[in-house]
Q: What sequence folds into this?
């Protein structure tokens, strides 16, 4: 039930064509539509010129292509994450302009007229502890770009060589949000969180072996960070970190 | 080494009273002071009129009182978290004006001239799924207040009775940041994150029994939230959630 | 917003005292009330003559008493679970008629006119592997009684002495629902589930030591039961098992 | 020892052809047969016109085919779960009429004269949070059909977009049993359990990544559900959920 | 139904006082009694002059005393494990002759005429790695004694000082069964299992701290022992180890 | 240093050709040889006519073949466990008489003159809960045979159909040792341990899915068995169970 | 058997008073003594003027006192770790000179004539991330002192304020060994290991809450340190770290 | 900023070409360079004639080759760990002299003029419990060689046959450092640590099956070693153990 239908119903009541009791009965199924109505602003914001996102994992190339077609028809573009080479081949066959980032495992079709990865606006700095963390950092970076935010990468600044992250002090301080991607012991977010006061979103990665337990060590490390106010997303979830950054950036933009 | 000392050293060199080689030698211990210098802005921000924070757990009442005295001397006030009744008694004996919140386990001495818990400025909504989650939510709330941010609580809106959180739609949409505190299955942040686009900070609590495993169930649930962009802090860490909100609020305030 | 208020609003529209646009605006907050309305049947069922339930753990005696007063005023009675002796003393002081079951840790004030623990209707058999599992079984049993269902206990029929559960074959086959409470290796539900075709709800208990890991062994055992169709609730959650039985019993009662 | 053999033995005693002592000796092995006898009703129910079930995992195509032949000879049909394409090819070669559901990984040969998936009788609603949960939901659905129960699917109604599950309120309320399949944080059963009073069987899936830990997050979430009376089966165990539903449906059908 | 009752029934049939059909009906509940009958040898063996065992944990002193009275009446004595000082006081008040072993936490009333802890017969050697493992070793030792087996203790022979266990080579080789009790890394069973070919029963203890995780480290170590044929019982389960030894000793005694 | 060398050394001292001090020095490396000497009986027993064992996992076919050659040269035969088809092909090329058991993953070359799998002597019964547990049971069975012990298999007697294991009561009671192999909830050893008093060795298998966690559920179930005196070996360790049985069988054989 | 006894035996042989065969027989139990002999240098080193160590946990005050008496008689002094106030009171009653360090939970009686905590020799720096880690650091420090090594503490230099550890660069570089004690995310050893090339021994502490899981987070973090060559001891094991340092210090001292 | 640049800056100030204020501004980014400067000695040590190390895992052959080229240009050689056959082929194509150790999975190009694996200097003994642990031991061994340290291997000395490790007593006592590599229960480091006083670095391996849980059992065993002063590195981390040995060796070499 859209707002239009609700308004029509109320007009029916106002014009005497529908008794209040009958309207009451039909409103029994109202909550959903109402909810949809309530979220109209939020949805509009998401849909204006920015791609919807397809999580490709566990989907067949045909399924991904079908969803991509639907999204492209609605919004002019789309973003796919966790895409394999097979996904890429299938989608590119249908959308030759799609950009396949093998490292980030993303498929991106730019929406026409959108300032993707704009070079002004507040900056989100994506920091990766080591080169092995790059795929996750890249996923965050591409997501930011596709959603129209300004991003920048800073790589190989792990805590075993502190001078590297210290040298980046100015960049860290000038960012609006810092996403810190690290595997192994996951100590970098604590260091960054201690250096600067901006929002720090930590992303543990499954990089490491033995007692890294697929990212558990880094995850626990980040959750127990001694730098107050660091927040954490799921293991290897670069996309989620970018979406968390987006929540902050959009809020900052509209703050009174 | 403060900037003043560094400047004095450079003046010595400029005036010929110290050879470059001698200066180089004395600069061997420079990094720390330099770092301190680099963070001067950050530190000033933290220290102006707002209390420093004492983590009381594992500290004796005497230790907490001693730290409180030092902080009060420097900043006029302080905030203590995880404070027991014994901590409270000891500190109150020294600072009769300290406010002891038994539920939140906080000790707060307001700094004079600070607009603690100001009623304007962007709002942080602290949402608690159940009444058992209140202590953690309260810790977040008091921390926000003590740091000069506007906070508001919304309690007992767990997902088993959805109408309660749905009824709060407007409050959620008007907040600058939403902190969601939940134990058991920790599902509330997913629901809130799906309803609104503002930053959502999830705090798992150790509320629950059996296979809740001290908050592990809620923690895993929140990390795997199907609502994109939700971030998570440590179990029962209401203070950390408030500090994460603060990072967002300060950044939003200075965004160009 | 109750159905009455909604009807009043619709009448206003019908009588021309409120324009559809104005009504639309006021309906913005509708979902909650609507939802409440949608669940009216469900709520009625819960409230007719049967006590609401207070989860006492982590609540003070004063809090429990206050909630009990509210529930007693609304429904004439109440059920409290996980109640300590302190809870019991406080509540009994206010409600001398309350029944305190120390083993089950329940506080029960019977609603007047309710056929609590009726002796007819479908039977729920609460089976406990050992005497140490009794507190959890008793919690399930009292909950059933308080909700007006017929329950019966069968105790000390663990799998190390199979003849005991085999001897109860008739009782098992005549039950409408069987709740099986077991700690240690949690094997009893598999045996019961293999003997009879009725719904089997397994409750792992934290009984055991060493590698029982607080009920984890029993929980995993029950989840992996080789008897198809056995379902599981949380560790030590006798209340939850009774509520699951209730869902089945109510459904069976109304099945066409 | 069948009841017939037992009766024959008793007749021998009655006719004086066998002394009580000799009969006592021969009854030493009685329990098994007796037990079989005791379960005669249960077995009849299982075998009348309904397929027995083959769990194909870890079995070779030849083994599965051999079991299928035995079951088809006895009951006219069969159901195979966790079947791979190799299993399907082998079985189809022998039973061209077998139905291979690639998504559900089931092999089903309908028993002649059985009202498989009947369109009347109480309804079991199989709810899946996301499209990735479909294989597990489909396994439950096919199992219901093969056992002669009426099932219906409801897909992609995860909690991040609440309006979707709310829109299905009527369907949920009309179901006799609701099976809720969800991965990631596994929050959907709590929401469904809060909306309706019918039996809710939760199935965690291994969908998710990182800290989903192969379904552990969803499993713990469901076990800790704040909606009372939700029960849980093993991770990815759609078959088990259908069998649990069957226990409820059969019981309801015969309830006095 | 005891064998006597069964015999009586058969006599009734033989004498024509009961028809085979009537007997068949009454035999419907036969399995249990039959089973009991089937185990008659086993039970006799357990009950002849040897005490039954009371697991005292989670039982009140009154409950333990009541069970003790029943067992003493039947068998002349009893053994209680996991007994606290409160249990001991209560039982001793009733049975002044009971022996309370504070270290082992056992309560033992010797059955008259039983050769408890006989000094001949095959020897079970109870080996404890450190003095902290003594309570568990002592529980095993007292259990052996109470069941009439010859036991001997060997203490403080951990692997960090190999000469100690090596010096005990003869004792190890002469034992019929060796119980090895160890906490921390639980390495002693591997060493003992490599030294001798007799049955080795490993008992992990919860001794240790930090990453010992309540005995998990020792348990995993013992399960992964590189000495083939070592078996393991639950953490701190000295009683279970003694019972496992008993199974071996009884079997060896009757081996043809 | 063999006993012969030691004797020679002592003779040198006795004959004055070696001073005590010089002998003392040379005895510095004595312990190893001494130990070897001490274990001479044990080693002889292992080596007489019985194959040594090769654990093939993580070894190349060439390595396995090389070890097999060495063992065959010394003992006339060998047993290989965890052997793949590649291992089998390589070894068979060298030893055409080797027996490759695909299910058990064993390679066995019988030693000439050895009564492998003798049909007399005490019986070890290998019980498997389900057909999926067969590979582990078969590994135990082949190991017993290769070591010259009498074994027998009993398969598909899981607890969900109790009549099956109950029907095997006589077989269980007549065995000298019972090895019980089970996956999923691992409940069968508790049932068997309750039925008979003989030594019961439980082998958890990795059979199962979801919350079976690779055999962890069965392992914990068996460690927490409510049947006293059941012992446990590592997950899927059929070989270890057979070796544990051997320890019992050899001991029983020599018991005075 | 001490070297003296062995020499006496050899002299007996040399003098013809004992035949080689008789000597061989008596040497059957030789390994232990031999081993003791082999370790004579090691033992001497441990016993010269330095206290033996009593692990007091799980021991009664009386037991600790008894062991202390034995050690004091042999070596003139002793060190007790994990000592409670009760332990301290009991021991002090017997040894008034014992030093009780409440923070470190140590009891230390200095051996006369020993240069405990000498102020020369290589330095071991004990670094603690936070004040809450002090008890563990202090245990390491006291152990070093009692063993005669030079130690120094550096406290409150956690990674959230990097300038603090950076300021200690010279101290770190001048140490022979660095022990790094940290809880929460355990990141400090990675930072220290990256700053200096000396041996770094990491000690995780149980400091932290929520997902710190009793030190597991810090332990995993340290095991996965991105600074190569950092080694780890058990959680809260300050004593073990000091002993590891001692192994390094003694080796360095005797290196050719 | 190198020391040279800093000196140049100071000269500018000394010569009046740069005002102190201007210098102060340029020193704002000083910490990093300063830090680099502070570590100059450490870096020199690492870079003189010894290869830098490439962690090949998760890197493409092309990436590894590129890094190898950069390192070879700087230092004349390099060491690669966790290298696959694909890595080896690619690197060998560019550096025909590279040595590919398939077992250790290392790629090593010797630096000209470096005494790799020198045969004098203190010895590091690499002890492996079983042949399956060889790859990890070999990684440690090659790393030692490539870094110019003297190493030696001792293999197949697991605790199930103690005589083997006891026979190596002299070798153990003469080593400067002992690296002990073991899987399964990981007991060997405890035994070695009890035999000798030299530094013992324990490396758990993922060798084992079932409840070995990928090396967790061995890791926990080693962390809980009853031999004081044993330290542990990550599972399968032979490289890390060699680096830890190196820290000790370098320190010992420079100890005053």
A:
């Amino acid at each position: 039930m859209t707002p239009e239908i609700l308004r029509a119903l109320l007009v029916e009541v106002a014009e005497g064509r529908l008794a209040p009791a009958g309207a009451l009965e039909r409103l029994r199924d109202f909550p959903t539509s109402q909810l949809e109505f309530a979220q109209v602003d939020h949805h509009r914001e998401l849909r204006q010129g920015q791609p919807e996102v397809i999580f490709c994992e566990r989907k067949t190339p045909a399924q991904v292509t079908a969803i991509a077609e639907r999204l492209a028809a609605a919004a002019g573009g789309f973003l796919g994450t966790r895409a394999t080479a097979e996904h890429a081949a299938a989608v590119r066959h249908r959308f030759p302009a799609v950009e396949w980032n093998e490292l980030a495992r993303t498929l991106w079709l730019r929406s026409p007229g959108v300032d993707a990865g704009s070079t002004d606006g507040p900056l989100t700095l994506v920091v990766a502890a080591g080169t092995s963390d790059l795929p996750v950092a890249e996923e965050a970076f591409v997501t930011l770009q596709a959603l129209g935010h300004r991003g920048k990468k800073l790589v190989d600044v792990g805590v075993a060589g502190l001078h590297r992250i210290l040298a980046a002090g100015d960049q860290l301080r000038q960012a609006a949000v810092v996403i810190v991607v690290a595997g192994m012991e996951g100590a970098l977010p604590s260091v960054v969180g201690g250096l600067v006061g901006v929002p720090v979103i930590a992303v543990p990665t499954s990089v490491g072996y033995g007692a890294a337990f697929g990212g558990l060590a880094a995850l626990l490390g980040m959750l127990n960070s001694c730098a107050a106010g660091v927040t954490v997303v799921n293991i290897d979830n670069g996309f989620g970190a970018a979406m968390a950054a987006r929540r902050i950036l959009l809020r900052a933009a509209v703050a009174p």
